[in-house]
Design a protein that fits this description.
about 260 residues; alpha/beta; Conserved hypothetical protein from pyrococcus furiosus pfu- 392566-001, ParB domain; 2 domains; about 50% helix
């Protein structure tokens, strides 16, 4: 043993017939990621120096080991019939999974929502979020849903950057999302708009990439909020009749001008 080195965690070799369980809160397994890891393991099996992290827990009175980090490495090794190695996590941090995963690869907002939806204290609110996401995610983005949820004019503010809350999503990621009737009314008012606009545009058909573009949705919502000088009903009616350029336009100023032009046609 070298001077100054202290043993902290033991690495265990895992027999092939040993099965680890998965936390419900973790991300779904990605077949693409498993395929990439299987190819990598065939070239060089480095699992001994990059072990799976597991935690010993009681499930219905039975002791099991659940994967905190390394579920894709575990699955790839099983499919290749390769020896696995693990470290038993003895920490008491209930949200260690988030910290480990986000250091290795950024979680999406949906990953965070799925995690918190499986925690009893936060499940109700985050399951509401996931329901809206499943219903309207085809026509909008997580950032826009949260922009409406939090009643922000745009999905990014300099104030949030000063607060260390990039994109206004820190509260969401920390499990502190709130939900009430006022938020529900706002979501039910604005989210259906994006699907309606998508279906109204025929000349040419509006591309999903265009309708989901963040700047497009921000400009549309801000125009609707200025109801004294913009009629959404007239805009939708004219969008059904007249050609549009929303698939090509990118600049906020161009999108805004084009919306007002269609509305006043």
């Amino acid at each position: 043993m070298f001077s100054g080195l202290t043993e902290v965690n033991k690495i265990y070799r895992v027999d092939l017939d040993v099965k680890f369980e998965h936390y419900q809160e973790n991300r779904p397994l990605s077949e693409l990621k498993i395929k990439e890891l299987r190819s990598s393991l065939k070239e060089s099996n480095l699992l001994a120096i990059n072990p799976i992290i597991v935690r010993k827990v009681k499930v219905n009175g039975v002791t099991v080991y659940k994967i905190v980090d390394g579920q894709h490495r575990n699955e790839a090794a099983i499919r290749e019939c390769m020896t696995r190695y693990c470290i038993i996590d003895e920490s008491t941090d209930p949200h260690l999974m988030i910290k480990l995963n986000t250091q290795m690869r950024n979680w999406t907002l949906k990953d965070f929502a799925k995690y918190w939806s499986n925690i009893s204290e936060t499940s109700e609110v985050y399951n509401e979020y996931l329901e809206y996401k499943d219903c309207y995610g085809k026509y909008t983005t997580d950032s826009i849903i949260l922009m409406i949820w939090n009643n922000n004019r745009t999905s990014y503010h300099k104030k949030w950057e000063r607060d260390g809350n990039k994109g206004g999503n820190k509260k969401f990621k920390d499990g502190n999302l709130e939900f009430n009737n006022k938020i529900k009314r706002r979501l039910d008012k604005y989210l259906p708009i994006f699907e309606e606009v998508y279906r109204a545009a025929h000349n040419p058909p509006l591309q999903k990439g265009a309708v989901r573009r963040q700047v497009f949705q921000e400009v549309l919502m801000n125009a609707i909020r200025k109801s004294k000088c913009f009629s959404y009903d007239r805009f939708i009616k004219n969008l059904c009749k007249y050609p549009h350029k929303f698939n090509e336009l990118r600049l906020r100023s161009d999108l805004e001008q084009h919306m007002y032009d269609i509305e006043s046609s």
